[in-house]
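Colleagues,

Please find the record for the two-part complex below.
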Amino acid sequence: EPEVTQTPSHQVTQMGQEVILRCVPISNHLYFYWYRQILGQKVEFLVSFYNNEISEKSEIFDDQFSVERPDGSNFTLKIRSTKLEDSAMYFCASSRQGWNQPQHFGDGTRLSIL
Amino acid sequence: DAKTTQPNSMESNEEEPVHLPCNHSTISGTDYIHWYRQLPSQGPEYVIHGLTSNVNNRMASLAIAEDRKSSTLILHRATLRDAAVYYCILRGAMYSGGGADGLTFGKGTHLIIQP
């Protein structure tokens, strides 16, 4: 069964540095998402992406975050200047179509900010 | 978004059926009921969804009350691998921007399976 893959599985970064988290969504999917989960807390929606532009974003997704689909397969989340509170699991998801289709999640990247 | 209420945790025995309840008394007529689960150290996983009629798939069954104010996820024969946090999520029918809406996760129900 096709799956969403995320790299790296664990990223350690110094505070203030830029970090890029990478995702390869399922190949025929058109909608892409990023979520985060701080340790012990709920999964939180960050942003959705469709047709090469942001479709929806949450209050968490401020100017330090950006997303890009640089080629036909990768979907990236960039955090420009990381803060300690950005430490979390970041999950990428994709769905074939929009609102009522299941979202398929990767196993996440654990981001640790020192 | 309409709110859902789930028990914090439930415990069941292996190879027995499990019924996970969800209350959504403010559900609107066009909201779909979705269930996801999150196994330890993994990303969320889609389980099932429905609108009004009961639904079955290879993973589970979804029983929806006639007034749609509650639903129950049924695992017919629980295994140790079903130990996870189960999330009941409502998804509305009308969105702008191509319909790429994010899921709103609550705290879910932590299902413990005893061998």
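Chain B is about 0% helix and 45% strand.

Comments are welcome before we finalize the supplementary table.
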